[in-house]
Amino acid sequence: IANEASRMTLQKDAVLVNQGDVANDFWIILKGKLEVRSDSVPTIVRGKNDIVGELGFVLKTKRQRTMVSMDDDTELLTVSRVVMEHLPKEDKGTIWRNIVCQLVKKKTEDENDSEDETGALKNIAEYLSEKLRIQQ
After folding, report:
1. pLDDT (tens digit per residue) in 66-119
2. What is the largest CA-CA distance in the chain?
3. CB 96 within 8 A of CB 127
4. pTM for this model (two decimals)
5. Which of 12, 31, 85, 89 could be bridged to 75 by S-S, CB 3.0 to 4.6 A?
C-alpha cells in the first residue's frame, strides 16, 4: 500500500482540505497532528496512525470538515481512488477493515452526532460490509 500511495508533508497551519472540497482521497497520518474544524470551529484532533477524510471518500461526497496541520513536518500517506483501484484485493480488504475500525472509534468518541451524521455512518457501514463480503 505504501508503495502505491504518495507521501506528503505539511507545515504548521497548512490546510490539508477545506470544508466543501471534493473527497477523492483519504489520508493516514504517519507523524504529527491534524485539527479537524467544522465551520472554522475546532472539533477534534487526529494523530499518528489515524485515518482522516475516509467518510467523504467512501460516500463520494464533499468534505464536511476542514483539516489543518498542528505541527511542522506532519507526514501523511495519501490514498486516492486511482490507488485503491489498482491495489490487490488483499490490500483493499485491509484498507476497508481499517476504515471500519476508524469509523467505529470516531463514532464512540463523538457523542454529539446529528441525525445526518448517524444516517451517513449507517450508510457507510452497509456499504463497507458489502465491500468486505466482496473482498473475502
Report:
1. 999 999 999 999 999 888 888 888 888 888 888 877 777 776 666 555 555 556
2. 41
3. no
4. 0.76
5. 31
Residue with cell 489498482: 86
Q: Which three cell numbers stand for residue 126?
A: 452497509
Q: Which H helix or E strand runs over 122? A: helix 115-135
Q: Is 101 left (phi over 0), alpha (psi -120 to 50) or beta?
A: alpha
For residue 83, the number of C-alpha atoms closer than 13 Å in the C-beta half-sphere is: 18
pLDDT tens for each residue of 10-61: 999 999 999 999 999 999 999 999 999 999 898 899 999 999 998 888 888 8
Tell me if 59 sits within 8 A of 26, measured CB to CB: no
Query: What's the DSSP call for residue 40?
Result: T
Other CB atoms within 10 A of residue 21 CB:
16
Burial zone of 129 (CB within 10 Å; 0-12 exposed, 13-18 middle, 19+ buried) = exposed
Strand partners for 15: 68
Q: Are 77 and 7 in contact (CB under 8 A)?
A: yes
